[in-house]
């Protein structure tokens, strides 16, 4: 897609500095950009690259705009504007509809006519797939699973245990939803497996990164609230609760029955001990271990 700089400014609600008829057709980094590209600056560490940038325009804030004479889209949140620009200039491929001839869909499953089931995917009995949902190749949707509208199971995703996904949930390759939680009772000779009979509830607009696992509850459900973002290789154990709009970076491990509040951030490699509570608006720095409940908003290491 190609837009004029004026059109892009209108779309973003940004202040335009420079010629509005300059054409923009892609997004690039400050160091790689050339004519036709729009770049962005949201991190002061890269400010030194402004001088050599060859982009047709740059998205930045008022302070950084004083550092360069280039054409600019000036806005309070450049990183958010960058995200919106990428979506506009680099749209996703059109949605597909139907069932691939190499997919296996049980006769008792209900797949909306506008959904897509990819090659080698399996949809088991009594599963429900909502309108516009894309189930990519080699996915497994287990018996009784409910998947809402406009979800995206990109590839090799497994959803089990009658889990319920609401609308616009995105699951990246290798995600497993509804695997058994780690419940083991010690015996005199070893271990007795504790049956896991709960499920998983995932609300609207959740995104879960590659090879992350969300275990089913032991009795009740594991719950992921609206707008949560989970990175790659994250382990969420049985009966965990994650509050709305919390973001969890790669390689975090959350032990069973922990409750994470709303609008929290857990940086890479954080560990959370089970059966504790973290308040809303808490930020945990990378590689930290949370061993007790946190009842006040703030940053913790």
Automatic annotation (TrEMBL):
A biological-process GO annotation = lipid A biosynthetic process
Pfam families associated with the record: Hexapep (PF00132), LpxD (PF04613)
Please tell me the species this chain comes from.
hydrothermal vent metagenome
Q: Which GO terms label this protein's molecular function in UniProt?
A: N-acyltransferase activity; UDP-3-O-[(3R)-3-hydroxyacyl]-glucosamine N-acyltransferase activity
Q: What is its EC number?
A: 2.3.1.191
Q: Which NCBIfam families match?
A: lipid_A_lpxD (TIGR01853), PRK00892.1 (NF002060)
Q: Does the keyword Oxidoreductase apply?
A: no
The name this protein carries in UniProt is: UDP-3-O-[3-hydroxymyristoyl] glucosamine N-acyltransferase
Instruction: List each copy of the UDP-3-O-[3-hydroxymyristoyl] glucosamine N-acyltransferase non-repeat region domain by range.
Output: 21-88
Entry GO terms, CC: membrane
Keyword tags: Acyltransferase, Lipid A biosynthesis, Lipid biosynthesis, Lipid metabolism, Repeat, Transferase
């Amino acid at each position: 897609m190609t837009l004029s700089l004026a059109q892009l400014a209108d779309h973003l609600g940004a202040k335009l500095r420079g010629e509005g008829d300059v054409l923009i057709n892609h997004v690039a980094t400050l160091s790689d950009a050339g004519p036709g590209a729009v770049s962005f600056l949201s991190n002061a560490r890269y400010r030194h690259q402004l001088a050599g940038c060859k982009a047709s325009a740059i998205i930045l804030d008022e302070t950084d705009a004083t550092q360069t004479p280039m054409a600019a889209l000036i806005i309070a949140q450049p990183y958010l504007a960058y995200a919106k620009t990428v979506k506009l200039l680099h749209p996703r491929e059109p949605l597909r509809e139907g069932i691939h001839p190499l997919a296996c869909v049980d006769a008792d499953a209900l797949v909306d006519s506008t959904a897509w089931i990819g090659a080698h995917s399996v949809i088991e009995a009594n599963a429900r797939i909502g309108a516009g949902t894309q189930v990519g190749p080699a996915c497994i949707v287990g018996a009784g699973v409910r998947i809402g509208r406009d979800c995206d199971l990109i590839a090799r995703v497994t959803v089990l245990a009658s889990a319920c996904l609401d609308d616009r949930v995105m699951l990246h390759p290798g995600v497993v939803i509804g695997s058994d939680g780690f419940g083991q009772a010690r015996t005199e000779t070893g271990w007795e497996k504790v049956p896991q009979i709960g499920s998983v509830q995932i609300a609207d607009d959740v995104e879960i990164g590659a090879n992350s696992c969300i275990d089913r509850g032991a009795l009740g459900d594991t719950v992921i609230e609206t707008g949560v973002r989970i990175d790659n290789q994250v382990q969420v154990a049985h009966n965990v609760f994650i509050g709305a709009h919390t973001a969890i970076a790669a390689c975090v491990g959350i032990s069973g029955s922990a409750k994470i509040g709303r609008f929290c951030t857990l940086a890479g490699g954080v560990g959370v001990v089970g059966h504790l509570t973290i308040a809303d608006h808490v930020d945990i720095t990378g590689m930290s271990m949370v061993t007790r409940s946190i009842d006040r908003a703030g940053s913790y290491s």
